[in-house]
Amino acid sequence: MPFLHSIRWWTAAGLVTAATGCRGEDLSFDCDYQSERFAEEAAAEGALRDAPPEGGPYPVAVVVSETGLDRLVKAVVGEDIPFAGNVPLAGFDASFEPKGEPQVRILDVPGCVDCVFFDVEFYLSLADTGGGGVSSGVGSTRLGIPLYLQPGPDDVMELWADYDALRIESFDFVVAGFTSEEHEALAGAMRILLEEKIREQYDPTHIMDFEPWRLGTGDVRLVAQELFLFPDDATMAVGMQTNLALPEGAGLERPTLPEGAHLGLAFHGAIFEPLIERMIVEGEIPRRYDADGTPDEEGEFGITIQSIAGLPSPMPEVFRVMFRVWRTAGGYCGYALAQMDVTGAFDGRFLRMSPGPVAVLSGEGAGAVAAEDEELVAEHQGVVDNFKRAVAEQLELAVGLSAVDLPGHDVVLEAPVLDIEPDAVRMASDFFTVEEP
Q1: CATH 2.30.29 describes domain 66-208
Q2: What is the residue extent of each domain of the chain?
Q3: Is the separation of the CB atoms in 322 and 33 below 8 Å?
Q4: What is the pLDDT of residue 10?
Q5: Cα–Cα distance between 115 and 228 in angstroms, integer?
Q6: 3-state secondary structure of 40
Q7: What is the H or E stretch that residue 272 is in?
Q8: What is the model's pLDDT at position 206?
Q9: DSSP bridge pairs for 321
Q10: Average pLDDT over residues 125-149
């Protein structure tokens, strides 16, 4: 970026001659004036609210498909299916044992809107307590298990399955020549007793964690707040709030997943400008530079952010960063309005953000002179490497949030895709789980 190195040519004889005649009349070159304006812009950046607001609209969401939830639950629960046991009933001892793996479902069932459902097939044995023998059969059931979020340490939000509140939604069997439909009273009694038995045997189970950002000094918070189940497209979503000062109403539309993806993360497009501003405030991205473009808190050059937004399709996955580079000391001051594009792509399973070249578009004072000299701009194109790298690194950390953590397991992304648009940034992928050693 030529503007940071432009001290070499701002003080060249031609510029001094051009500016000297109007220095006293034109405040755009005045260093005290430009220094005050820079300080005002910098002070307005990176504001935080005292705490994340409660409730929507949510600027960040994690989305899991029914298939994805099935994988995550089975990774944690394993073979410990919450449907087994013995129930004494009117001279019989009924024994239940799962047959194969259950299927986790997201369904629209009245009275259980926060539930996921296990479809379980089972073996059933009825033993005559009077010594009359044993009859065997098979059956199927649908278990409704409420899910809930519970705060954990350090802004982690835990997802739990409340087996204490498990419900048997359906219960059908065939044994010894009769069916549950033919003997509704017997089937109803067995269902009630079995439901009570399962509730006694199983405690609430910790399924997964929703992780916050780990950025900067830790003052920026991102907290999962609300669980949503969408039966019509069989997805689960978790809305997340932040204490970044976002525009009013900056929230996502209902998040969805592309075909073949089972885990996704979505950000409202308005979140990235205040986030990068905050990273400048916290020092993760340098605010000021010396004449050589080296970060320096007392440097005569400074940077403020004007906007950060995704570009619309069919452009590649690009953030456009507009920023001002200020000169606030040294005799002739002003600012240049500059632009760079940061392109996002997955390198295998890992997200990479690559900054492109910086162009000076316009300016004021000495910055206006810099914007008009294309040759000098080209000569000094690489001098903001520190700024470019830092912005790309923070965007990479933010968008690459590892939002889901599975106790005792790693979640490994497969074929991840990135979609950057002006209104939202979305990541989605297939995945598999690996047990930690």
Answers
A1: no
A2: 2-47+245-435, 66-208
A3: no
A4: 42
A5: 10
A6: helix
A7: helix 272-281
A8: 92
A9: 308, 340
A10: 83
Residues found in the chain: 437
Q: How far apart are CA 233 and CA 229, in angstroms?
A: 9
Q: What is the pLDDT of residues 264-316, one digit of tens each?
A: 999 999 999 999 999 999 999 999 988 777 888 998 889 999 999 999 988 88
Three-class secondary structure of residue 265 per DSSP: strand
CA 24 to chain centre: 52
CATH code given to domain 2-47+245-435: 3.15.20
Residues linked to residue 140 through DSSP beta bridges, in sequence order: 121, 172
Query: From edge to edge, which strands make up the β-sheet containing 350-365?
Result: 288-289, 301-310, 318-327, 334-347, 350-365
- Give the distance from CA 118 to its chain's centroid: 27
- For residue 395, give the H/E element and its range: helix 385-399
Distance in angstroms (rounded) separating the CA atoms of residues 328 and 98 = 74
Tell which residue, 58, 59, 71, has the closest CA to residue 413.
Answer: 71
- Report the chain's mean pLDDT, rounded to a whole number: 85
Contact 319, 305 (CB under 8 A): no
Same fold, 2-47+245-435 and 66-208: no
Read out DSSP for 82-105? S--EEEEETTEEEEEEE-S--EEE
